[in-house]
Amino acid sequence: MSEHSLPEPADDWADRHVARWHDHWVGLSFDGEVEAIVVRMGRIMRHFRKTTQAAVAEVGLQDFEYETLHHLMIRATPGQASPSLLADDLGISNAGMTGRLDSLEKAGWIQRRADPDDRRRVHIEVTKAGIDIWRRAMEMRGRAEDELLSVLSAEQRATLAGLLKELTLTLERE
Questions:
Q1: Distance between CA atoms of 97 and 95, rounded to whole angstroms?
Q2: Which residues contact 24 (CB under 8 A, 6 or more apart)?
């Protein structure tokens, strides 16, 4: 090995997966590189789901509570939504949303407020306690994300971010 060449990286789980399955795709379209990319993205997302679940459990939230608070907090108007818009965002029924909101309200993490212009309508607002517990979970989740991505240089992170953006833009155009 010359002084300027990098050592060959070790095989990872995706490389072994592609090698195992390569011969099973005879006669079918199979691009090992595409398969490895998709498998790696899946493994990374499973890792982030696992670290998020650990953070959520550590602060004392259930998955559905965190998910609902998170969708409330990342809106254009953070911490506020109508129950029906929130249900749409989460992909659940209005009845399912009512159950979630009842639980969150009982815990003191949200409050329901009547719409001042139409008393038949209700708005949901995250309380200070709800914001605090969500932020604690987000801080732990963020540390796990930072830790994994810290193995990349700033240039590599920028490149990865740009490449992933190209993929998400493609999805958004569909």
A1: 5
A2: none
How many domains does one find in the chain?
Answer: 1
- Name the token pair of 94: 């209005």
pLDDT digits (tens, 9 = 90+) for 83-132: 999 999 999 999 999 999 999 999 999 999 988 888 788 999 999 999 99
Is residue 123 within 8 A of residue 80, CB to CB? The reply is: yes
* DSSP codes, 61-106: --HHHHHHHHHHHTSSSTTEE-HHHHHHHHT--HHHHHHHHHHHHH
Rg (CA), the chain: 22
What's the pLDDT band for 8 if we cut at 50, 70, 90? low
**What is the average pLDDT value for the chain, to the nearest integer?**
89
Q: Is residue 63, in this structure, part of any structural domain at all?
A: yes
CATH number assigned to the domain comprising residue 100 = 1.10.10.10
